[in-house]
Amino acid sequence: MHIEACRPWLVAELSLLKPELIVVLGATAAKALLGPSFRVTRSRGELLPWPASAQHPEDFPVAEIQAMATIHPSAVLRADDRDAAFDGLVADLKVAARALAK
């Protein structure tokens, strides 16, 4: 319910900002934007097309941008192995940084 209610504001922001890359943090955000079958654990750190991968691509009037999903930073705090979780998050963010540096 909140996701659908806030969608117009997100669409408006993306239309104005025209980002090159959207980093989606956590499973809830990923499923809301990339579809209910999306799994962060399977696709984290991968550059994905946008809006073709979006659940409602017609809502997002942006073009030629990418998306990348990773874990939510709070997941690091809940992880059994915090060092490994942190290292994975940093590795994912480095993928995003390299994509933007091109």
TrEMBL record:
<keyword id="KW-0004">4Fe-4S</keyword>
<keyword id="KW-0227">DNA damage</keyword>
<feature type="domain" description="Uracil-DNA glycosylase-like">
    <location>
        <begin position="2"/>
        <end position="94"/>
    </location>
</feature>
<keyword id="KW-0411">Iron-sulfur</keyword>
<dbReference type="GO" id="GO:0097506">
    <property type="term" value="F:deaminated base DNA N-glycosylase activity"/>
</dbReference>
<dbReference type="InterPro" id="IPR036895">
    <property type="entry name" value="Uracil-DNA_glycosylase-like_sf"/>
</dbReference>
<protein>
    <recommendedName>
        <fullName>Uracil-DNA glycosylase-like domain-containing protein</fullName>
    </recommendedName>
</protein>
<keyword id="KW-0408">Iron</keyword>
<dbReference type="GO" id="GO:0046872">
    <property type="term" value="F:metal ion binding"/>
</dbReference>
<dbReference type="Pfam" id="PF03167">
    <property type="entry name" value="UDG"/>
</dbReference>
<dbReference type="GO" id="GO:0006281">
    <property type="term" value="P:DNA repair"/>
</dbReference>
<keyword id="KW-0378">Hydrolase</keyword>
<dbReference type="InterPro" id="IPR051536">
    <property type="entry name" value="UDG_Type-4/5"/>
</dbReference>
<keyword id="KW-0234">DNA repair</keyword>
<dbReference type="GO" id="GO:0051539">
    <property type="term" value="F:4 iron, 4 sulfur cluster binding"/>
</dbReference>
<keyword id="KW-0479">Metal-binding</keyword>
<dbReference type="InterPro" id="IPR005122">
    <property type="entry name" value="Uracil-DNA_glycosylase-like"/>
</dbReference>
